[in-house]
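Researcher: Structure for this, please.
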Amino acid sequence: MPLFDDESNKRIRYHMKMRGHPNYISNEMSRFTPEQISYHWETFLNPQLYHVQMDDRTYKVKSLLRRKLSRKVD
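Model: Predicted structure, token format:
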């Protein structure tokens, strides 16, 4: 099961549009840290993303970061 579901994605998009900072969002969505929200926004949700082809090293680094930041916070 993904850490961020569709409802979480909608809330993050809305709050980033209205407030523009993950700290405000994490106060309302306490199961996520500001770092997790920020990374998810910058990697997947930001409408201004510019997707480029990644080489193997970049892919490995991003994969490691994604796994580290997507751990569920207890």
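Researcher: Any notable elements?
Model: The mean pLDDT is 76. The CA atoms of residues 12 and 41 lie 8 Å apart.
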